[in-house]
What we know:
Blueprint: H1 5-15, E1 24-25, E2 37-41, E3 47-51, H2 57-64, H3 76-83, E4 87-95, E5 101-109, E6 112-118, E7 124-126, H4 138-147, E8 150-153, H5 157-165, E9 170-171, H6 182-187, E10 192-195, H7 201-216, E11 222-223, H8 235-240, H9 245-254, E12 288-290, E13 294-295, E14 299-304, H10 310-323, E15 338-343, H11 348-358, E16 366-368, H12 384-394, E17 396-402, H13 415-432, E18 435-441, H14 458-463, E19 466-472, E20 482-489, E21 497-505, E22 510-519, H15 523-526, H16 533-550, E23 555-556, H17 557-566, H18 571-581, E24 584-588, E25 595-599, H19 610-622, E26 631-636, E27 642-644
Parallel strand pairs: 8-9, 8-10, 10-11, 14-18, 14-19, 15-16, 15-17, 17-18
Antiparallel strand pairs: 1-2, 2-3, 4-5, 5-6, 6-7, 12-13, 19-20, 20-21, 21-22, 23-25, 24-25, 26-27
Amino acid sequence: MTATPLERFEAALHAAGRNPSSGKAKCPAHDDQNPSLSFQEAEDGRLLVTCRAGCLTSEVLAALGLEWPDLFPGDESKSKRQCAARRIAATYDYTDENGDLLYQVVRYEPKGFAQRRPKADGTWDYGLGDVRRVLYRLPELLAAKEAGGWIVVVEGEKDADRLHDLGIVATTCSQGACKWKDEYSASLAGAKVAVIPDNDEPGRQHARVVAESLSRAGVTPRVVELPGLPEKGDVSDWLDQGHSAGEVNETILATEPWSPGPDEEVARPATAPTLVRVSDVEPEQVEWLWPGRLALGKICVLDGDPALGKSTVTLDIAARASTGLPMPDGHQLPEAVAVILLSAEDGIADTIRPRLEAHGADLERVHVLDGVGPWCRPWTTGDTDALRQAIADTGAKLVIIDPLMAYLEANAHKDQEVRKELHPLARLADELGVAILVVRHLNKGSSGNALYRGGGSIGIIGAARSGLIVQADPDDETGHRRVLAVSKCNLAEKAPSLAYHIETDELYGCGRVVWDGPSSHTADSLLVQPVSEEERSDQDEAAEFLRAYLAGGRRPAVEVKDAAQAEGIKEWTLNKAKQGLRVLSEREGFGPGSKVWWSLSPSIDDIHAIDDSSQKLTSMASMGLPVPSMRHPGAMGGTGEEVSFPLSS
Length: 649
């Protein structure tokens, strides 16, 4: 009986000592203390695998000795293979110039490969992470280069070791064909290099990639064709035919130096700069799919906790885009557009389609990018070419990625990796004029600044030109109302927040968004954490102080903080009260000479009576602190003049 992808995956987890339970397990690709690996079957039988810590699916598979086809139904031979006990057949050390171990490639039987790096306690982290990549047998290569000897590049550590045993200096790179990097070529600059490819099309393509890279490094390689090598054969097969090390050397010396064909050019060096003269660029205005929220040609991040309707909101937006209906604030789209969805958490038949229909979508214009390549493997953010093709095929103007973490190849918590991976996605959006909306869960932090509350690296919101957040309305006693607020907008003023609730659509049996109009909440005010009664009392006191101190107009922030400190109010409490009151903060000037001013928001019209605050201001005056003039808002004398309230002495 053929094993299912789920059965194969769980068997591999058990063999690795990761003991899965209810679709979760400790990830085998990193030192996982709490189960961060989740897996579930899709409607078509595929297994969807996600590491919440940011490990790539390929790294998880490698750590388990599995391959991409193992995540797909069918292939009885693989099912039987997985039932066999997995064992390590060989390990290949990749070291630095001094011979210190950087990482190791592991070959398994039944056939499979993994990469792992050593930990201080003698155990292993699977996956390469951010470890430096080097060529196999690097110290030997540097010695051969110094001595003026030949270095042979082959495919695979097994072939390199076979040549080494014959006295030939040989190397390869990890992760297979066409994974050659320009930094590998840089380490061979000044050396005599021969490339012996496998006798198949991928092998020849790999040889060309290596030769072009070496040429850019100033090396003139020789690409060697071994005479009589069978189709799909490699150098080990050729040696097995009875050929000798001497014949390898003779064939290398008889091969002409490599050069591109007459109609070919060597690609520009990877470090060659691309310059754009600003005067040659025609100015353009930003185009919006939804003004102040979703810009065409840009990435937008939508953050929020689970169960608040993030995905439902995105499908409402998709439905409006597909039909040309007005956006929730009344903005009229000029035309209906196509939409591409990537969803790692919801089924197309039982969730996505019913929700789209409940929101009135034109289903002909909505497309789900369900996979890439012949095995329909899950799309990742590294697959920009596949997304580019999907956009070209559909004419889409909106792409929704839900959630982003399920599709990132980079470690989501490493800023440099995230920015590097999202840059091509941002370039793609800009080039094709497409709005890309990515969904993200909030982290468990307590910051009241919405920009720091999204999961993963700050580089994610940094790569976006606008940010949205959904959160429960703290003023709603029913617990049903939500608020969509703008957390970031680099291209225009922040659009007003909008309230909504989810109601059940009886016809389609799913949730549907109902928009309730504007909300006075901001992204930051929505994230103010609940406090204890004691803290609430302190914040109420701080809020009362701010109302009184700022009632006469804006004041320098430093002055307000000094006065609050003199009153025994902690800065943390003052800032919480400032958020709750939505005190405005404005900076004048730049650099060290700039000045920050605080003032009450125009929406705050319930300033406490002067009698409630005069005692505090009297205390300030007695300490010699500056005291603003006080006017009770709206208090006018019989002549229409403001009535002043002098402080008691």
